[in-house]
Amino acid sequence: METHFPTMHESMGIHPTEKVVEDLNALVRDAEELLKVTADQPGEQAEAARARLAATIESAKKTSLRLKETTLATARAADRIIRANPYQAVSLALGAGLALGVLIGRK
Q: Which pTM does this prediction carry?
């Protein structure tokens, strides 16, 4: 039996990693559009700038993909660990919450 408990971010409709990936993809699309628009601009400086921008776009695409893959792998690993050790996970969360409560309460 598999139970899904949404995190605070999911219940609020906020997915930080997805937002970063979406923003990075939007940046890549805008940069590619800029390359197309400036394709007819003559000059060595314009050509060098286009070459650097093209390299940066490829790097951003790879980074976006790597970030998404890493995030998914980390989430799956955490899910497996918590499902394998539910009592230890709850105890750890309880202990961390208690420690934070004590630290915040000491004023």
A: 0.52
Distance separating alpha carbons of residues 71 and 18, to the nearest angstrom: 9
User: CB-based burial of residue 60 (10 Å sphere; 0-12 exposed, 13-18 middle, 19+ buried)?
Assistant: middle
**Cα–Cα distance, 59 to 105 (Å, whole number):** 46
Q: Which candidate, 56, 58, 64, 53, places its Cα nearest to that of 25?
A: 64
pLDDT per residue as tens digits for the range 12-45: 555 667 777 777 778 888 888 877 777 777 778 7
User: What total of structural domains would you count in the chain?
Assistant: 1
Tell me if 2 is assigned to some domain: no
Structure tokens at 23: 């923003």
User: Domain limits at 60?
Assistant: 12-105
